[in-house]
Amino acid sequence: MERTFLMVKPDGVQRNLIGEIVARFEKKGFQLVGGKLMLITRELAEQHYGEHKERPFFGELVDFITSGPVFAMVWEGENVIATARLMMGATNPKESAPGTIRGDYAVTVGKNIIHGSDSPESAVREIGLFFKEEELVSYTKLINEWTN
Ligand code: RTP
Ligand code: MG
């Protein structure tokens, strides 16, 4: 089954949005297989956002993502990588549709509440950066018979 890496960013944690965000993915029908509240080191932040290291906002991005606790998660389900990106909304909250997480809760691109892997390759890479295999739990939920 497909897996993705999602993370409530420091602004989402400070604004008490962990529960709301987890609830959206649970109600959708996806399954949580790992989750933890953690501080990101600069080294991990620079690896995680390595694709952006030449961008002008890279320093600010690393400062922001290391500025307080994040809630890191792995979610599982059919097409979860692309569907989670749709549920998050566009990167810039000025363009994210109402009804999406960023559309409903964020105002500015630098504080956009949630991260989600953008491809199967990113998902594998990011899950490996943030979680040990033994921190992920595979289990069967009978309710999934009604969604899958
Ligand atoms: P993320 O990686 O955090 O899930 O966001 P994303 O895929 O939607 O967007 P991405 O292009 O990967 O950008 C990573 C984060 O960098 C910040 N950003 N700032 N100031 C700017 O113009 C700018 N552009 C991007 C955003 O916080 C974005 O989430
Ligand atoms: Mg990205």
Automatic annotation (TrEMBL):
Residues 1-138 form the Nucleoside diphosphate kinase-like domain. ATP binds at K9, F57, R85, T91, R102, N112. SUPFAM superfamilies: Nucleoside diphosphate kinase, NDK. The modification Phosphothreonine is found at T91. The active site is at H115. InterPro entries: NDK-like_dom, NDK-like_dom_sf, Nucleoside_diP_kinase, Nucleoside_diP_kinase_AS. It comes from the Bacteria. The modification Phosphoserine is found at S122. Keywords: ATP-binding, Cytoplasm, Kinase, Magnesium, Metal-binding, Nucleotide metabolism, Nucleotide-binding, Phosphoprotein, Plasmid, Transferase. Its EC number is 2.7.4.6. It is found in: Cytoplasm. It is an enzyme of class 2 (transferase). It catalyses: a ribonucleoside 5'-diphosphate + ATP = a ribonucleoside 5'-triphosphate + ADP; a 2'-deoxyribonucleoside 5'-diphosphate + ATP = a 2'-deoxyribonucleoside 5'-triphosphate + ADP. GO terms for molecular function: nucleoside diphosphate kinase activity. Its cofactor is Mg(2+). Its main location: cytoplasm. Belongs to the NDK family. Major role in the synthesis of nucleoside triphosphates other than ATP. The ATP gamma phosphate is transferred to the NDP beta phosphate via a ping-pong mechanism, using a phosphorylated active-site intermediate. PANTHER family: NUCLEOSIDE DIPHOSPHATE KINASE. Homotetramer. This is Nucleoside diphosphate kinase. It comes from Robertmurraya mangrovi. The gene is ndk.
